[in-house]
């Protein structure tokens, strides 16, 4: 069963290859683009797709360190993620420079994927060092990606529609979505999208999660007082020359995994591509579904497969390693108890939190095997060390960079 779970994950990733999708769509661009910018963990394959289609344009891409792919024509830079660094700043400044150089008759193609918030970093109102500290605090706070990006957009000269604002050209953005609901203003902090959030919203996020960031707060307070120019909003005339299109999303990943399991003869229930919230509570919900199915046949009588997507969060209070998917599985093991289940949870980019794993596999005998090794699940959960727990069991899923980013995939096999 473990082999089936991991094969379903890898098959779904192959079916949602960004290079293949970009190559298939590139010839339909009208008018043809005259320049290109790419940002995110899928920047490499998206540019490779342009090369397959025969498009060799002025421009470049930036991706996370270690996520590069061989390209014949395009330059692919690497920068810091999830915390921006000096290379992120240089990449953003260069992207803005190219955008500003274009004329109204030009057509800029922007290839956007998750990770772009860190990889394009043009600090506004604070120095990079404080922005780095703020990013770390936000990522550990349990805030949703939309809340985090509301803050990022108001501390940047490229996010929140400001890249589109910086150019006079026509803009087409193709997006590989890594956010629940596929909100184009949230993916990579929406460099080409209207921003519905405000300086006041960003301040409220810092208050909600009790994050101290003096320079950021001072800047956001000036903006909330009307002393700074807001991000361009929905209805701004500039977006008449901008097209934002979702090219791939978590729903595509879920369809692919459902097709795989259906082909293996299983009934499949796809729950949602939009789950958010704490990994602990998401695990509680999935465990309740399994328990209900086993006891009463709701939502179905076993055997069947449950699949879900979206993005959980973890409010980090310990010093261990892990990520939201490994945390989900550790809590799922806790809530299911000794009976357990087969399950996989993994991040489609191949990197779950601060670990080197994409995720992990849960087995029906996970708790029994943990007891044999003197592994205390609750102790690991208390110090946010789900990675250490699954690593000791040999149940990590390690893929390396997948060059994609379609959010999380969870698959539970509810046996007879």
Automatic annotation (TrEMBL):
<dbReference type="InterPro" id="IPR039760">
    <property type="entry name" value="MOFRL_protein"/>
</dbReference>
<dbReference type="GO" id="GO:0016618">
    <property type="term" value="F:hydroxypyruvate reductase [NAD(P)H] activity"/>
</dbReference>
<dbReference type="InterPro" id="IPR007835">
    <property type="entry name" value="MOFRL"/>
</dbReference>
<dbReference type="Pfam" id="PF05161">
    <property type="entry name" value="MOFRL"/>
</dbReference>
<dbReference type="Pfam" id="PF13660">
    <property type="entry name" value="DUF4147"/>
</dbReference>
<feature type="domain" description="MOFRL-associated">
    <location>
        <begin position="5"/>
        <end position="220"/>
    </location>
</feature>
<protein>
    <submittedName>
        <fullName>Hydroxypyruvate reductase</fullName>
        <ecNumber>1.1.1.81</ecNumber>
    </submittedName>
</protein>
<feature type="domain" description="MOFRL">
    <location>
        <begin position="305"/>
        <end position="408"/>
    </location>
</feature>
<keyword id="KW-0560">Oxidoreductase</keyword>
<dbReference type="InterPro" id="IPR025286">
    <property type="entry name" value="MOFRL_assoc_dom"/>
</dbReference>
<dbReference type="InterPro" id="IPR037035">
    <property type="entry name" value="GK-like_C_sf"/>
</dbReference>
<dbReference type="InterPro" id="IPR038614">
    <property type="entry name" value="GK_N_sf"/>
</dbReference>
């Amino acid at each position: 069963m473990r082999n089936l779970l991991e094969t379903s994950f890898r098959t779904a990733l192959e079916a949602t290859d960004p290079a293949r999708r970009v190559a298939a769509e590139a010839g339909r661009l009208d008018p043809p683009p005259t320049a290109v910018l790419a940002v995110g963990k899928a920047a490499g394959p998206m540019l490779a797709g342009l090369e397959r289609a025969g498009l060799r344009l002025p421009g470049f891409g930036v991706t996370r360190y270690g996520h590069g792919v061989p390209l014949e024509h395009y330059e692919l830079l690497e920068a810091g993620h999830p915390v921006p660094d000096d290379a992120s700043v240089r990449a953003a400044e260069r992207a803005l420079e190219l955008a500003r150089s274009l004329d109204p008759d030009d057509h800029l193609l922007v290839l956007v994927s998750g990770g772009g918030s860190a990889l394009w970093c043009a600090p506004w109102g604070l120095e990079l060092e404080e922005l780095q500290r703020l990013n770390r605090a936000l990522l550990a706070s349990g805030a949703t990606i939309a809340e985090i990006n509301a803050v990022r957009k108001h501390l940047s000269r490229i996010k929140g529609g400001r890249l589109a604002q910086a150019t006079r050209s026509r803009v087409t953005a193709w997006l590989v979505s890594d956010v629940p609901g596929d909100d184009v203003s949230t993916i990579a902090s929406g460099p080409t999208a209207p921003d519905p959030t405000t300086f006041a919203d960003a301040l409220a996020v810092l208050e909600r999660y009790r994050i101290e960031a003096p320079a950021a707060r001072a800047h956001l307070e000036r903006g909330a007082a009307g002393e700074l120019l807001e991000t361009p909003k929905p209805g701004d005339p500039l977006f008449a020359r901008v097209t934002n299109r979702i090219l791939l999303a978590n729903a595509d990943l879920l369809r692919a995994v459902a097709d795989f399991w259906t082909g293996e003869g299983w009934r499949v229930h796809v729950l949602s591509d939009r789950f958010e919230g704490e990994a602990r509570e998401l695990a509680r919900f999935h465990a309740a579904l399994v328990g209900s199915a086993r006891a009463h046949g709701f939502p179905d009588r076993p055997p069947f497969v449950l699949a879900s997507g979206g993005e959980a969060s973890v409010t980090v209070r310990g010093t261990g390693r892990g990520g939201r998917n490994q945390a989900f599985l550790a809590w799922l093991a806790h809530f299911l108890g000794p009976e357990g289940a087969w399950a996989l949870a993994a991040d489609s980019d191949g990197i779950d939190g601060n670990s080197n794993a994409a995720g992990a596999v849960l087995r029906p005998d996970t708790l029994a095997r943990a007891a044999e090794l003197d592994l205390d699940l609750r102790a690991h959960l208390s110090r946010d060390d789900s990675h250490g727990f699954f690593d000791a069991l040999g149940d990590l899923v390690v893929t390396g960079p997948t060059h994609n980013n379609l959010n999380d995939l969870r698959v539970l096999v509810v046996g007879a």
